[in-house]
Amino acid sequence: MPPEPVVTYRGGEAGQGRLEHGELMVEVDEARKALHAQHHPHGVLETRRIPGSFELPAMTEISDFALSKDDLVVINPGPGEYVHVMEGQRHGYQNLTIGITYTAPGGAPPMHTHVGEEAHVLTESQKVLYALGDEVFELEGPYIVNIPPMVPHSFQNLDDEVAELVVIFPTNVWEYDVLDYFPFADR
User: Fold this and answer.
1) Is residue 7 part of a domain?
2) pLDDT digit string, tens, across residues 103-141
3) 161 near 1, Cβ under 8 Å?
4) What is the per-residue pLDDT for 187?
5) C-alpha to C-alpha distance for 81 and 84, rounded to whole angstroms
6) Is 53 inside a domain boundary?
7) What is the pLDDT of residue 186?
8) How many domains would you assign to the chain?
9) Alpha helices in 17-164 (DSSP H)
10) Cα–Cα dist 22/115, whole Å
11) Is 67 helix (H, G, I), strand (E, B) or coil?
12) What DSSP state is assigned to residue 50?
């Protein structure tokens, strides 16, 4: 297997929250809790996003337009799960954020939601277990999965090789809410 990626931002206090696993973790406000209550019965533990300030690229050089995976921020949202994140607002995009996962065998992010929709793309013939709302199901690539806004979801790599899912968001910000429920705990 390829080596695990290295997380970009290290732990510690970050003023507005705490840094862990390469992400800024902040408390969930009452409006966000009320939004979740309209969509599912699970509690919300925290909101996670990419920390730090940034300068908008000039968008004048090829390097402003063509990004290497090695140029992206790396986070570690769950055991065996790393994501190379292209957060649109940091790279000149208006309505696009993309992640490329490194999901080790058995790896999974926490159960979470996004305010907007998300798509997962897997081009290899690997097996992935999904939790989408109250449904748990297995898929074998290649496939595209539509994850509607505010639907709790997670996935777990059932294969013997690292899975690289491409996750796509029609927003320029990487942000999600972690829930107090994990559907794969008994597996």
Assistant:
1) no
2) 999 999 999 999 999 999 999 999 999 999 999 999 999
3) yes
4) 66
5) 10
6) yes
7) 75
8) 1
9) 30-39, 62-65
10) 21
11) coil
12) -
The span from the CA of 105 to the CA of 162, in Å, is: 6
Q: What is the pLDDT at residue 13? A: 62
57-75: burial string, b at 16+ Cβ within 10 Å, e else = eeeeeeeeeebeeeebbbb
**CA distances from residue 25 to 36, 77, 125 in whole angstroms, order as listed:** 18, 11, 34
Q: What pLDDT does residue 1 have?
A: 82
Q: For residue 6, is it within any domain? A: no
The secondary structure of 148-177 as a DSSP string is -TT--EEEEE-SSS-B--EEEESSS--EEE
- Predicted confidence at residue 10, as pLDDT, reads 77
Q: Which residues contact 47 (CB under 8 A, 6 or more apart)?
A: 25, 26, 27, 28, 32, 175, 176, 177, 178
Segments in the chain below pLDDT 70: 11-14, 187
Burial of 14 (0-12, 13-18, 19+ CB in 10 A): middle
Domain of residue 62, residue span: 12-179
In a domain, 2, yes or no: no
The domain that holds 88 is classified in CATH as: 2.60.120.10
Number of Cβ within a 10 Å radius of residue 18: 15
The DSSP annotation for 127-144 comes to: EEEEEETTEEEEEESSEE
β partners of residue 163: 103
Q: Which residue has the tokens 């993309």?
A: 98
CB-CB neighbours of 185 under 10 Å: 7
